[in-house]
Amino acid sequence: MTDSNIHTNHTDITIIGGGMVGAALAAMLAKSLTDRQITLIEAFPLPKAGKPLFQPSFDDRSTAIASGSVDLLEHIGVWKTLAEHATPIRQVHVSDRGHFGGSLITSEEVNLDAVGYVVPNAWIGRALLAHLQEQTNITLLTPAKVEKLQLIPNGAEISVSKDGETSTLTTELAVIADGADSPLRKGLGIDTQVDDYKQTAIIANVRFDKPHQGTAYERFTDEGPMALLPLGLNDHGQESALVWTQPSHQADEILNMSDDAFLKQLQERFGHRLGNFVQVGRRDSYPLQLIHACEQVRTSIAIMGNAAHFLHPVAGQGFNLALRDCASLCSVLKQAGDKSLGSLALLQDYIKSQTGDQQATIGFSHVLTKLFSTDSLPSAAVRALGFLGLELVAPAKHLLAQQTMGKATRGVKL
Ligand SMILES: Cc1cc2nc3c(=O)[nH]c(=O)nc-3n(C[C@H](O)[C@H](O)[C@H](O)COP(=O)(O)OP(=O)(O)OC[C@H]3O[C@@H](n4cnc5c(N)ncnc54)[C@H](O)[C@@H]3O)c2cc1C
Q1: For residue 201, is it within any domain?
Q2: What single-letter DSSP state applies at residue 2?
Q3: How wide is the angle at C-alpha 296 spanned by C-alphas 293 and 301, nearest 5°?
Q4: 88 in any annotated domain
Q5: Does the C-beta of 244 come closer than 6 Å to ligand 1?
Q6: Cα–Cα distance between 65 and 68 in angstroms, integer?
């Protein structure tokens, strides 16, 4: 349901930020808390019918979605649409530049139809927001910007500017999902722990002249890892989403190169497994840091997504982890009974239920960045599994666990 004016000035839950995580959380809450009113406030406009959505969260990137996340997206009713734009990963090829050979992880080996799926962010945005527009317990305020958030007795008060006017909204629970920089988190005086990797991820879609056959490639180079995630709806696609990690001081040079020079350098770094690289799309860059909010909940406040934890994409787990957080929050709120949805005890139950998963996933992605410097192939395989954020079955998971940091909690259910 889209609201061009703010009719009511109170809503049970208000989500600030309709990016990947805010929009996914809104969809989960709409399904789990059918008797509650949820408002989603997003600074960018809604997508036009039938078109992918392009805004900073739903940009030219593509996301590797793990099987557990597919289950969650299926549960909220958007996977059917997303599947039309999802490329199954049939196998993962891992190699180290300067070393012969490589290792292959296939979907048969892990007993799944696909090791994971690659979905363009723009279609994730389109599917989620189109779905939200159909929900009767969701009010979408877009384009609208939250200017201020403050705590009041029994909730929070939010100042929203829309169409040049500022209105005030009260809510039992305000969810802050406004991205890694999160001005609203800062406004509440919540500190962050920051570890600057001094690396930048350069992304672009690239074309080549051999079919990828559903293979995701991960190649470790002395400058950082490079991933090519298959795109196109069948195994014969000749396009992949490139994530190329560079030391930050080199990133501008690579970003500003001519297409020919970029493709030449990529060819030199990746080799010829996909034949010749022939075309590169729009390039974008993301400086990489580990950012972790020191507090994720306060009375009437929950901080989610990148605002809560921003991970190195070496682990490709940012969205997958955030979806599990969202599922966990939903399941706790569902059991609120007579309690206010902003009850600190309730929100602490959510944090308790996700602490293990968050620590394991964040720690794991951090450890992976350290593993880049090692040469052994088992480590390389472990790195690849982590990079794609894939949820694999026992042997691979066991290897992951052994090689890195022990068991991670998985399989959050709504
Ligand atoms: C290169 C790269 C590759 C990645 N690959 C993967 C992957 O393969 N798998 C995976 O699981 N994860 C991946 N990730 C992580 C994933 O992209 C993030 O987890 C996800 O984008 C987080 O979304 P978010 O909604 O929390 O934040 P954001 O995407 O930053 O969205 C924040 C939203 O809030 C809105 N907003 C901000 N302030 C306000 C305000 N005051 N009022 C209203 N609206 C506001 C913004 O407009 C925006 O829409 C990758 C990340 C990068 C950088």
Answers
A1: no
A2: B
A3: 130
A4: no
A5: no
A6: 8
Asked if the structure places residue 133 within a domain, the reply is yes
Find out whether the beta carbon of 178 lies less than 6 Å from any atom of ligand 1: yes
Average pLDDT, the chain: 85
Ligand 1, residues 87, 175, 288, 319: which to mutate, most atoms within 8 A of Cβ?
319
**Which of 54, 57, 284 is the pocket-test mutation for ligand 1 (most atoms within 8 Å of CB)?**
57
User: Are the C-beta atoms of residues 74 and 131 closer than 8 Å to each other?
Assistant: no
The backbone torsions φ and ψ at residue 17, rounded to the nearest 5 degrees and listed phi first, read 110, 110
Instruction: For 267-328, give the DSSP string.
Output: HHHH-STT--EEEE---EEEEEEEEEES-SEETTEEE-GGGTEE--GGG--HHHHHHHHHHH
Domain count, the chain: 1
Pairing of strands 284-293, 91-96: unpaired
pLDDT at 384: 53
Query: Is 317 within a domain?
Result: yes
Please tell me if the CB atom of residue 63 comes closer than 6 angstroms to any atom of ligand 1. yes
Please identify, by atom number, the ligand 1 atom nearest to the C-alpha of residue 160: 42
**SS3 state at 266:** helix
For the Cβ of 22 lying below 6 angstroms from any atom of ligand 1, the answer is yes
> Which residues partner with 225 through β-bridges?
220
pLDDT in tens, 316-352: 789 999 999 999 999 999 999 889 999 999 999 999 9
Average pLDDT over residues 29-41: 96
- State the pLDDT at residue 221: 77
CA angle 401, 402, 403 (to 5 degrees): 95
pLDDT tens for 260-289 read: 999 999 999 999 999 999 999 999 999 999
Nearest CA among 270, 292, 293, 302 for reference residue 365: 292
The rounded Å distance from CA 251 to ligand 1 centre is 21
- Domain membership of residue 127 as a residue range: 10-59+122-193+292-380
Closest by Cα among 343, 340, 336, 350 to 308: 350
What CATH number has the domain bearing residue 358?
A: 3.50.50.60
